[in-house]
Fold this sequence. Notes:
29% strand
Amino acid sequence: MLLFPTLAGLDKTVKTSRVLALVLKLIADLLRVAGINRLITMDLHADQIQGFFDIPVDHLYASAVILPYLESLKLDNLVIASPDVGGSKRANTYAKYLGCPLVLCNKTRARANEVESMQIIGEVEGKNVVLVDDMVDTAGTIAKAADVMIAAGAKSVRACASHCVMSGPASERLITRRSKKLFSPILFLITTIVLR
């Protein structure tokens, strides 16, 4: 059995769908040949990824941990936000469950891992915003989203993510915003690979 949660961000590094399909099938075959007879993943970027495997795949959802935590905060004027349009389905699921509005961020990238501009689609003024994402790599997107939310008048901004890669300047970006009171508590799940 293999716990392999980081498949969630694979499509962020492989740019074309044909190449992504080949890479995913190669990974699936390599794991099977290595003797893996079951795979456990968390918050896959696309549910269809499970179809590349010839072994049983258990796809878990971080929402089982994150949603009860968010409910325990008992925030008034809560808004769930996706820091990019690609995460809108996940954020919409959270918003429906919590019975609150959904806000989206539309971003453009200057290059990989560098956000050029971001606009908010929805209303955040006076609201407690929770940014929901699947993966935080360099934290550029989630940091920029927090900046934009605060500039638009959000009362507070929190963030939660399933996969916390935290490469390069990620820690500094989040610590800087936390010290400037731009971020309220942040919940990132630390997912690891376990072989058994």
